[in-house]
């Protein structure tokens, strides 16, 4: 059963339609939130992702998924040369962060985006951060 943490969503409710499949619900949630992280409960990498975003001034929506729901997560496109690191992340898609409806990937991708200087402009572009 999909659960949410409310550390980043103050006063916002999630509508859950029992008729929705896990994939439909995930796609809807991605479209409704500018920054959303899908994770397993007690995931240390998710904690680091939240801390990184919080230091920038963004408080993402965090959704905890069951194993069968994690399989419904969209995955980021593979990098030009397929790497061993990408094949590992493809098998284990959680945690995954989506910014502006686009899958950024996991912790390594988020940190890489930040270190390259592209994270803050992307967050400003989707309205998650004021520049």
TrEMBL record:
Gene3D superfamilies documented for this protein: Glutaredoxin
Keywords annotated in UniProt: Cytoplasm, Redox-active center
Domain named Glutaredoxin: residues: 35-104
Domain of life: Eukaryota
Presence of the UniProt keyword Disulfide bond in the record: no
Location(s), subcellular: Cytoplasm
Gene Ontology cellular-component terms listed: cytoplasm
NCBIfam families: GlrX-like_plant
Family: Belongs to the glutaredoxin family. CC-type subfamily.
Name by which UniProt lists this protein: Glutaredoxin-C6
């Amino acid at each position: 059963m999909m659960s949410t943490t409310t550390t980043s969503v103050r006063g916002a409710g999630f509508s859950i339609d029992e008729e929705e499949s896990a994939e439909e619900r995930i796609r809807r949630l991605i479209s409704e939130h500018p920054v959303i992280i899908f994770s397993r409960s007690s995931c240390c990498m998710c904690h680091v992702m939240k801390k990184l975003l919080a230091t920038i001034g963004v408080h993402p929506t965090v959704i905890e998924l069951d194993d069968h729901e994690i399989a419904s997560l969209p995955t980021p496109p593979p990098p030009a040369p397929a790497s061993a690191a990408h094949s590992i992340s493809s098998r284990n898609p959680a945690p995954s962060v989506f910014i502006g409806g686009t899958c950024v990937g996991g912790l390594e991708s988020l940190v890489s985006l930040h270190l390259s200087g592209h994270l803050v402009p992307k967050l400003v572009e989707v309205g998650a951060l004021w520049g």
